[in-house]
Amino acid sequence: MSALDLRAVVTGANRGLGQAIAGCLINDYGAKVVMTARFPEPSMMDAVIGSDGADRTTLVALDYTNADSIARAAEVATQVLGHVDLLVNCAAINKADAWPPEASQGGLAHLQAEALTYLLNTNVVGPVMTCKAFLPLLREATSPCVINLSSSWASITNANDTRSFGYTISKAALNMATRKIAAELAEYAGTAVAIDPGWVRTRMGGPDAPTEPDDAAARLLHLVLSGQRAISGRFLNADGEELPW
Predict the structure, then answer these.
(1) Model pLDDT for residues 124-150, shown as the tens digit of each residue
(2) Which pTM does this prediction carry?
(3) Contact, 115 vs 170, CB < 8 A?
(4) I need a surface site. Which of 29, 170, 175, 227 has the fewest CB within 10 A?
């Protein structure tokens, strides 16, 4: 994928890694970017945009759990971008906030169906339906790409404890969705990849995480945009190393 005239959509761009990815695209790649969040604020732009980036940035509300919100975001992107070269599904939750943490994080005896369903709708159904809504715009690109942010905790091979029950199964499901999306985008010379950014110092990752969001964003975008490796349908870390499904 060429970075020339790159047009991108980043979900969850209001903070953390999503904000860093949007900033890297705008400032380092000169991309035209639609930044989305459930509740977008002008401060999102102030935090990431250089002096010449404002005219290449649009803020849009996108709530993974609201089909109308997803559709409206796609309509705005159609108007301001025309096509989408890169869709980054970054927004995610690690627990269902309206319930006690254990209702979606487990163990098994503590899970509540409503909490688990909400987490799965946010982390799996939402990104998939976002890909569906943006599919016409991806088809208009020369070599479209979808990045689904995953986690090493999604590895079924390495699963050996009870932590983060809902989050881990949701990311494992998103990995499968990535494979399906990759197969569909192949018809349009497109790519879909699941990337674990590592342990990043965000609200979800916590203050002890060793990696700054800007560093993780730069590494994963280089992996995808350099065009040096065949990555479609794979589960990789931000340095391009294969992770076990």
Answers:
(1) 999 999 999 999 999 999 999 999 999
(2) 0.94
(3) no
(4) 227
pLDDT-derived band at 55 (thresholds 50, 70, 90) equals confident
Q: Note whether 49 and 26 are within 8 A (CB).
A: yes
Q: What 8-state DSSP symbol labels residue 155?
A: -
Q: Quote the distance between the C-alpha of residue 211 and its chain's center.
A: 18
pLDDT number for residue 42? 75
Which of these, 167, 169, 145, lies nearest to 156 by C-alpha position? 169
SS3 category, 89:
strand
Q: What is the DSSP string of 217-245?
A: HHHHHHHHHS--S--TT-EEETTS-B---
**Superfamily in which the 7-237 domain is placed by CATH:** NAD(P)-binding Rossmann-like Domain (3.40.50.720)
The residue type at 196: D
